Amino acid sequence: MKRAIILLLSMLVFAAGCGEEEAAETSKEEPVEKEEVQEKDEKQEKTETDWWKKEVESYQLANLPRELVDLEKELVIKEGMYSGNSYDVSAAKDKLNEMPTDAEEAELESAILQLIREDYHQEVETFVTFDPTVQINQDSPNEEVDKPTTETAMSTTHFAILLDASGSMNAISDGTSRMELAKEAIGDFIKILPENSTVSLRVYGHEGTGTDEDKEKSCKSTETLYNGEMNQGKISKALDGVSPAGWTPIANALKESEKDIPENASNAIVYVVSDGIETCDGDPVAEAEKLNKQGVQPIINIIGFQVDDEAQKLLKKVAEAGRGEFTYAGNKQDLDEYWQEEYNRMQTAWEEWQQEGMKKADEISEQLMEQAEETGRSIMDKSDQEFEREEELINYLTNEREMENADNLWSKFYERSTTIWSYGYDNQTKNWGEAYENGNDAWRYFYETGNEKWTEFYNKMN
């Protein structure tokens, strides 16, 4: 029994000894783990507090016409926390106080910029995408005029003349047939057309006779007798060969006249000279609507030569469908007056076109110049403001915190400010000048072209 008690006590002593050893070992390991955690936390805290070492993000500008140069890449870096109207010199100094006294010059430079760097990204985007072109989208009486180019210089107005050659044009008026009077009036009209215009002469109803037996043949008849540059001699010769014959297929003539308009024509005016209504069961109103919606959307004017009241009503509907006008001509004098009114209309239209074009040229040019002026001024003002604040913070670092590595910062920031200021000034001057010159070119184009066209019509009318 005594032995058993002694054995039990021995085992308890042994167990206690093992427990103390394990506890001792554990206590030896704990300080090591705590030191590692503490060191880790200190590193993380240091990383978070060293804000001047962080990489600053930049604005991403999309759809630029070219790559940014190095200076522009610098200018699209996001603004500092105390830039612009958010400037707080006390708060900025407090942030600088977080930096060690022996901070490197590059770190100090980065810190100041992260505090008060101005936001230039919108101005940079404006200059990089700036287009000084004075583009004026304005329809002229005779051609599409944006900016004078080879394409617009080659474009012309096409005048399509559709002449009724049905048998009724043989009727005598004032001792002369309607056909001869129409030919003479058309000839006078052609004389004063713009030199760069093109003309087509199409006749309809010129085959067969006015009998029922020839109706199908006559209603199918429409033919282009001339199509090309304005040439009075050739057109007059083509007119000489026209003789009145059959029925009146106005609808068919309108349908086929689309083929007469050249592809490079900038616009077209169709003149239908007729002494009667459609007699071939066609639908001239529907054909006029279709023609007006094709290509350059030609305007269709109807000249009703000695037509009765019923015919006038029907022909007016055709003109309205073609967004044109109907004019009644009771004799040769009426026809001549109609053409004279057309000349006056063109002359007035050119004058209005000229004035509107010059006005738009001035307005667009001034808007572009103002944009260039304001953008450049904004960059220069921000550069000056940024440098003033940089100087204030540099003085604080050198005088109050006595940081030796801040001694050369002034020259660095002065060079930065000068470079940015020059970027704003140079681009402002360049873009302003180009907008001014382009505005002058566009203004002169409308002035000179308008005068030339107006004089051209004036000389031909007198």
TrEMBL record:
Keywords: Signal. Gene3D superfamilies: von Willebrand factor, type A domain (3.40.50.410). It holds the Pfam family VWA_2. It comes from Virgibacillus profundi. Residues 158-346 form the VWFA domain. SUPFAM superfamilies: vWA-like. Residues 22-49 are annotated as: Disordered. It comes from the Bacteria. Residues 25-49 have a biased composition (Basic and acidic residues). This is VWFA domain-containing protein. Residues 1-15 form the signal peptide.
